[in-house]
Amino acid sequence: MDVKDLIEDLQASLTCSICLGYFTDPVTVNCGHSFCIGCLGHCRVGAQETLTCPECRAEIDYGRDLVINRSLQQLSITTKMLRPHLVQALVGLSTCDKHGEKEKLFCEQDHRILCDSCSLAPEHKDHQVLPLEMAVAKGKEKLLETQNILRRKEEHLQEAWDQAIRSEARCKKYALNSQRLLISEYDKMHQILWEEEILQLQDLKQQLRDNMVKYERYKVKLSQEIQSVQRVLLEVEEHVEGTPSEMLQGMKGTLDESEKLLCQEPEIVSEDWTIFPITGLREMLMIFYRDITLDPETAHAHLVLSEDLKSVKYTSVPQDLPNNKERFVHLLIVLGAQTFTSGRHYWEVEVGEKTEWEVGICEESISRKWKHSPFPEDVRILAGCRHQGRFLLWNSQDGYYPSAPVQKVGIFLDYERGHVAFYNAMDRFLLCSFPNKAFQKPMRPCFSPSLPDEEITPESLIICPRSTQ
Fold this sequence. Notes:
Blueprint: H1 3-13, E1 26-28, E2 34-36, H2 37-42, E3 50-52, E4 59-61, E5 67-68, H3 70-91, E6 105-107, E7 112-114, H4 116-119, E8 129-131, H5 132-188, H6 194-241, H7 244-262, H8 281-285, E9 303-305, E10 311-314, E11 334-335, E12 344-350, E13 356-363, E14 379-387, E15 390-395, E16 399-402, E17 408-414, E18 419-424, E19 429-433, E20 443-448, E21 461-463
Antiparallel strand pairs: 1-2, 1-5, 3-4, 6-7, 6-8, 9-10, 10-21, 11-20, 12-17, 12-21, 13-14, 13-20, 14-15, 15-16, 17-18, 18-19
């Protein structure tokens, strides 16, 4: 075996069979095979600790069977640095079979290495012929540039992969949360709704399965694109590290395939969900309807109440009101006149087309002099806003999340259970509910129309009258 073959065998011994590159942070498993620790990590499915060896399929315990191979790492680094110099010293210039002269030129049109006599042949008369050293330098520059572009492409695709994983996790979390909320709602309702509950849960699971299929297909496509980029990257690296003859004669196909890959962009995947309207929901809640009115003694000076104390809106000119201890000084809030210390209660608020609003309940003893929005444990608020053409809801448990626009909000309070829930009263489905936590003090409804949009006339928050429609 000649020296060149020995060098190539050494390179093969120091190459990871997963990424096909020199070892990076290699580990040796119990069956004796070695891999990059990062490559082996990609072979895991989810958070499972057990996987199989990519070489012999032997079982590997990821947490116990990995041994860091520092000697193999150092040998890989040294060989990678030395190989180009060793190969260059061994290659030299080839000899033309036809003329017996050294082949010192390269024809760019035919991608052939030529001697001086070959370059004078008629078939190369109008071709661009360069000295071999210049052609090598030019070719290597193109390959290195392509290598950098492909690496950026790989990073871009990997980011898309990571985003898909995060979106998939959020999708699962959303489905599980929706399942919990549906079950909670059906616990309040009569046994005749049992069959509907089962059907709704089946629909939710089907939507989850459909979304999982969508993300699985998306991941498969991303995986294929990543593998294609990695394969072309490997070809580029082989050309760069190969002999000048191998590089110049083999790089054209690699560069063409690279251009095709760089033109592809990962598609954007979003999950699909439908709402879950509950039969008889609003009719059941209206049993606990309470006639809520606003307390003018608590209203901020920029809030104007209607004469019947059923609506509130923002005014840019503050009113001349007494600074009594009940009045909010900094926050645009007004409380309901009713105080709850027991029982179940329900009321509805029409928010219309307002760009921002807040409704909910708070402890009667809430400080009226806070300068910043409080949202402590004694305040349970649902807020809505329109932002960049989208409608968003906010609560202290889930933060912001997209939603269909809400025209009318229903608020349900079960004091004994420490339960508060918010509903879309028009379409009759749950918007959100808080974990049950016992109330320690009297509770009151609270309202805030928030600051109006600069281009929209301020609208009122209206407490709706009792209605069965």
